[in-house]
Amino acid sequence: MTKNSTSPTRAAWTGMVPVDDTALAVTDTGGPGTPVVYLNGQFATQGYWRRVIADLGPGWRHITYDERARGRKSQTSADYSFEIAVRDVDAVLAARGVERALVVGWSYGAFVGAHWASRNPNRALGAVLVDGAFPYDWIDEATEQRIRKLFKRLSPFMTLMRPTGLTPRMNAEQMADSNIELGRISREGELGPVLDAIAVPTRYVVASGTSFGSKGDEQEQIRTSLDEVTARNPRIRVSAKVPSNHGAILKKDFHAIAEAVREAAAQGGEPASEPGQPPAA
């Protein structure tokens, strides 16, 4: 953990943060420790982070929240775009009085974290990207059609599950649009420059198991795109490759994720170096 507090000491708080046409359910453990903001999977909730948070312990200031229409409390919105997801990070931090933070994102949240860290080199203390933000061209017209059919087929089941908070309060078209947009953002020509521009210590934790719905070694091929990323940007390193699959990584390999947070924080805490200067690794 970085030695210097980056925000004023605050009491623990749980409540709603109004943003645009919606409000987000936020939990802030408070305290003087390094602020860590956790960014969820595409349709996941803040509860997924509980094991990582417990492993890191109370010496950190943990900030979690549910994205628009996710969980039981975050409200619906007219906008579920990726750009809005990145902007909502700023809204949550501003509401909690945090200027600088370390971002930790899983899956969809890894993309959000990468973009936020890339755009905010003097506010990001570091980034930990968990099995996501791999620059790879996997989306095409046929894939988009399959995605739309899948969400349409799953819609009745997801509607039944909404009261539990385990599925988002978004319709099938909105969920498909979000997934397709993520595919486009994942393209090497789109995500590569974002990762190249990251100027803060960044650690990846990568799964190795095969997830439901993947074909052959498709996921492993996607993950190999990190080789070129780490070769181009020395600030970015793979902290660990763990045995669990994409869906189970927060549950089974939370120790590795917590250790990556410690690594990134130990290297961070200083403003990003100017272009052409040796980076903090």
From TrEMBL:
InterPro entries: AB_hydrolase_1, AB_hydrolase_fold, AB_hydrolase_sf
Keywords annotated in UniProt: Hydrolase
Residue span, AB hydrolase-1 domain: 35-142
Hydrolase keyword on record: yes
Keyword Hydrolase: yes
A molecular function GO annotation: hydrolase activity
The name this protein goes by in its record: Alpha/beta hydrolase
Native source species: Nocardiopsis tropica
